[in-house]
Amino acid sequence: MANTVLTVPMQGWACALDKVADAVFAERMLGDGIAIDPTGDTLHAPCDATVIGVQPTGHAITLRSEAGAELLIHIGLDTVALAGRGFTPLVTVGDRVATGDPLIRFDLDLLVQDARAVITPILVTNGDRFAIERRAAGLVAVGAPLMTLVALGGDTQAAASGGERHTRDIVVPLAHGIHARPAARIADCAKGFDAEVLLEKDGRSSSVRSPIGVLTLGLTHGSTVTVAATGAQAEAAVEAVAALILSGMGEGADIVAPAPAPIAPPPPAAVAVEGALGGVTAAPGLAVGPVGWLRATDCDVPAEGCGIAAEEAAFDTARHDLATALTARARIAHGAERAIVEAHAAMLDDPALLEATRHGIARGHSAAHAWRAAIRPQGEALRATGDARLAERADDMRDLERQLIAKLMGVETTAPVFAPGTILLADDLLPSQLLGLDTATIAGIAVERGGPTSHVAILAATLGLPALVAIGPGLRDVAAGTRVILDAGAALLHLDPPQDRVAAAEARIAATAARRAEALARGHAPCHTQDGQRIEVFANLGSVADATLAMANGAEGSGLLRTEFLFLERETAPDMAEQTADYQAIADTLAGRPLIIRLLDIGGDKPAPYLPIPAEENPALGLRGIRVGLARPEILEDQLRAILSVRPIEQCKIMVPMIASLDELRQVRTVLDRLCAELGRTDRVPLGVMVETPAAAITADLLAREADFLSIGTNDLTQYALAMDRGNASVASALDGLHPAVLRLIGETCRGGQAHGRWTGVCGGLASDPMAVPILIGLGVTELSAAPAVVPDIKALVAGLTLPAARAHAQAALACSSAADVRRLAREFAA
Fold it and tell me: Where is the signal peptide (predicted)?
């Protein structure tokens, strides 16, 4: 493909983007290019092209050249604030223009007076496909050569870029915005279509094939973004990517994440404690021990390479070796660790990074130097977005930088060895560093920088390690070997504390350990209150591994098996045989104990690509839960047949999610009875409902006439009762299941069940909350299904209660005016 020569689009002074007083342009977040400080009043076409975007305010335009280069020309800085004053667009989207054609006229005098600057960046936004050579400088005239674009790829992408352009505007619903993992999933989704897909926001754009480019758009919760595509399957690609983003991708406020809610750092005066440093809680807990420092330094890398061919070969080998290592780690990892490793692997495949690195090698740099030069600006671009969570993802990029350079330089990354009980200190801890340590020797973590939602914070919580972050430079003065008390719950690191304080902390740690050991020792006995009321304590499960953990912790069965684990993250629905095998494996692990299997709860924030659920303005109120099963009867019937195949036949009960009316329960019962008849089963298979809507709670007496049991999902019940979307970061922090309105709905559900002799359980988050358990029992709950790890603690808590005291406590809670008042009351009750 021939090179493309762009001509000067406006007269003025040409200069490098570094001269632009705006980080978005100067740091090349949107792409590389050049800038012109104009002296004329008209913007002209720099090449033969198609107009693919004109900002409504007229201050910016996007073009696609015949070779497929996408050009963004942004007249002035912050000129969007002029709301169109001073700009007269002369073309519209879809117009074809020839080199030199006028595109936009502008009032230069007005811009000079009212805009922050008139300097105009001309950018190549798909720089993964084009390199820039020979840029003009100094005084330039319209029509003179400006810069030359050299195509890096073949014709495949250019072909995909042709054809009609399809777009769709959506609002990002992800509670934490589009960060590394969602960006990688979007890129993977787009690979399945013959189309070039872009995300566009505020005049900036990025190919979805570049997860890092997507990150630099700063797409936070509530951002409006345009999904755009060209190519043979453009329309289908736009709909698929839009649907994926609108689904929330499991990144809502209810995502399973071990890290606690972020705690905002208080002002210095609020944490000023003599002899202590304050920070931000990343994972709660208490630890005492000597300090051990983990200090990482960047490798020195040679700027000059040993020849283009040799450096490219070295880069490919190192990248292959690191990819293999990440794949191997992901294969044996679980939960948060696996998600983090997969995010690193996705970034390692980022086409923008790869092309930038190869371009650096082509200029004579070593592979290590080129890789560092490619990836560091991307990390800085994330920090420059101003979004704290995206800034924390820059740590992952620095981690990836170090890992690949270590492979290139042949540096052995041997993890340091620490004495048992060490409090690990670091200036900034990276995920691979923590994963490489023998964490059995680490009692807690304190970090100078970092944030409470970083991947290290999530890993620390997963490992059960108290962790404090964002302590500040004062941490640097703490010498190795210094004895400290890490009180992560109070966000304090006590330095060289007196012996009496150490003794008190150690006593608290010992008491907690003793309570835990006692709870585990007694955890396998049936659970009763102090005065003999039987309370079943079950576990919520999502896999065989969860079932194994539940058994080790004394769970009496499973009050909730989330069957979504079989249906998500795959291209086709599991068949009946696969479902039967998985349900049977979990039933076998429970060794005959009760297993309540929830029917598929999908839709809303849990999408499946093979279920074409149209994008919904409010997925939480749309096609989800049993509504999906009733709309797709073949999926419902296959799942019911699989459950009915589990042996022994009496072990399984079936629970229907998201019930809002008795008619929905009756429809499922009709299908279940028909299948039982086909299989020759004459016993009545227990069929219960999950109470997650206020409608179900208020009509619990009606449901209990035909349902065999009621189980309350407090997470969704809280969301719907308080009219607060738990996927909306603006309101999610106010969601609390101990709100009196939610407690009253729980009480109403228990009364409705008791009216017909049905038991009521709780399988939502409140069942794992020690502050909530006494209230739930006082309201009439007789079954609790909690997280497997906390089953012994919940059993021990219940064993210390009396029913009259719990009932009185529950009535007092119902009279409170807020969730905060209820929690205050609960703390007093527990004291």
Answer: none
Instruction: Encode pLDDT of 480-515 as tens digits.
Output: 999 999 998 778 899 999 999 999 999 988 887 887
Structure letter (DSSP) for residue 215: H
To the question of domain 1-154 being in CATH 2.60.120.260, the answer is: no
* Catalytic (active site) residue 763: yes
**Candidates 652, 763, 809, 816; catalytic one:** 763
- Could you please state the CATH topology (level 3) that the domain comprising 268-296+415-506 is classified under: Glucose Oxidase; domain 1 (3.50.30)
Architecture of domain 308-409: Orthogonal Bundle (1.10)
Q: Which residues contact 279 (CB under 8 A, 6 or more apart)?
A: 265, 271, 446, 447, 468, 469, 470, 471, 472, 491, 492, 493
Does residue 617 come out as left (phi exceeding 0), alpha (psi in the -120 to 50 range) or beta? alpha
Contact criterion met (CB below 8 Å) for 563 and 595: no
Q: Give per-residue pLDDT as tens, 314-336.
A: 999 999 988 888 887 776 665 55
- The CATH code belonging to domain 529-830 is 3.20.20.60
- Cβ pair 485, 501 in contact under 8 A: yes
816 annotated active-site: no
Q: Pairing between strand 783-786 and 536-541? A: parallel
Q: In what order do the strands lie in the sheet with 442-447?
A: 276-278, 492-495, 483-487, 286-294, 422-426, 442-447, 467-469, 280-283
Task: Name the active-site residue from 455, 494, 739, 809.
Answer: 455
